[in-house]
Amino acid sequence: MSAADRREQILDVATGLFGDRGFHGTTTDQVAQAAGISQPYVVRMFGTKEKLFLEVLDRALGLLLQTFRRILESPAGDDDRPMQARLGSGYVDLLGTRGVHRTLLHAFVSGNDPVIGAAARRGFVDIYRFLRDEAKFTPAEVEVFLSQGMLFSVLLGIELPAAFGQDPDADELMQVAFADKCGVVLEMAGPGTAR
Amino acid sequence: MSAADRREQILDVATGLFGDRGFHGTTTDQVAQAAGISQPYVVRMFGTKEKLFLEVLDRALGLLLQTFRRILESPAGDDDRPMQARLGSGYVDLLGTRGVHRTLLHAFVSGNDPVIGAAARRGFVDIYRFLRDEAKFTPAEVEVFLSQGMLFSVLLGIELPAAFGQDPDADELMQVAFADKCGVVLEMAGPGTAR
DNA sequence: GTCTATACGAAGATAGAC
DNA sequence: GTCTATCTTCGTATAGAC
């Protein structure tokens, strides 16, 4: 495998693992095993675990903004909903790439870390700039959009969809929070969506 | 110091530390040093680091619900705002106990962990039940309240208030998200609010 | 491009003393 | 109630070979 392909592969599996257990909870050996290579080779490729995490974070943020920009620039077509709703669906669709939401959330709770925290703040502000400057959201729209996005992410964080069917109140909460997106979420992150 | 007092003291400092660096990122030795005791004594007292974290989490959730219930049961007095706003202020006031919001968020992103994740889910659903059954929120009100709360927590997670003054766009984002609460937040979590 | 071997330092937990 | 000493395991990173 070429170095470039290997890099991508490692970043892919690392996104899933970091999403599951965060920076401190994930070992380079777990990444290596998931990628089918040796632990030292992972380190060799990225220098340090921290650099690996930063690349994973950058990629996740890049994918997010790329997804948003694509929606923003694509013709509405048969989708006559307001841009807020369309971008919201794009956010949900990121579930297609395992670990993105949860890796971002892990980064967002690491503000205290001098390196990762700085990157996380930059990333969040980048998203804000996109909403304000490119999507032309009003402050009120930004507030609603980000709020809903964060609730969505946190509910993924506690694995509410994965625990579907175990507690009626938990299921009801999903219904309340995800509303029309409930079906899609259960399909993409529901029980048995093993990693 | 009595065992009970020592317990409380350890739980206090552990809340701050777990809030800063999460379960995996915090060592029992850091907790011990912050409490001015030896590392083995911390373990001795709580059995394992995981049990310590679970107690910290329970306490944080307990404090949250206790705060909410107090507001719910207290007479409105001169505060004529709707209950959503009053509970929201209560949530902000939890900043008075260092680490509560961020420890909760760390727990909420650990859904994957069999033990901590289960406790986190239970905790979140407990909050939902409170809003639905005790505060009598409508589903729409629940959705808005939880959304705003999670955005609030995430912005604390990235330490946006602590980084105030470093990036105009970041400051603007704070304004957009915190609105009238901006002042209080900066006072309680702004730059120089060292731990 | 990828491995094996390994050094080195944490970090959680235990034993046992005072 | 609290400590010191220590065991043991784990995890990152390096060295160097193929």
Characteristic terms for this protein:
72% helix; homodimer; 195 residues; DNA-binding
Strand content of chain A: under 5%
Identify the quaternary structure here: homodimer
Largest interface: A-B, 50 and 49 residues
- What is the rounded Rg of chain A? 17 Å
| Low-pLDDT segments, ≥5 res of chain A | none
Write the layout of secondary structure elements.
The structure is a homodimer of 195-residue chains.
Chain A: H1 3-25, H2 28-35, H3 39-46, H4 49-73, H5 83-93, H6 100-108, H7 116-134, H8 139-157, H9 168-178, H10 182-189
Helix pairs in contact in A: 1-2, 1-4, 1-6, 2-3, 4-5, 4-6, 4-7, 5-8
The first copy, chain A, binds a DNA duplex (18 and 18 nucleotides) through helix 3.
Question: What does it look like?
Answer:
Two copies of one chain form a homodimer. Chain A is mostly helical and 195 residues long. Chain A has a domain at 54-157. Chain A is 72% helix and 0% strand. Chain A has ten helices and no strands. In chain A, helix 1 packs antiparallel against helix 2 (28-35) and helix 4 runs parallel beside helix 7. The two termini of chain A are 23 Å apart. Chain A binds a DNA duplex (18 and 18 nucleotides) through residues 1-3, 6, 27-29, 37-41, 43-44, 48-49.
Brief sketch in words of this structure:
Two copies of one chain form a homodimer. With 195 residues, chain A is an all-alpha fold.
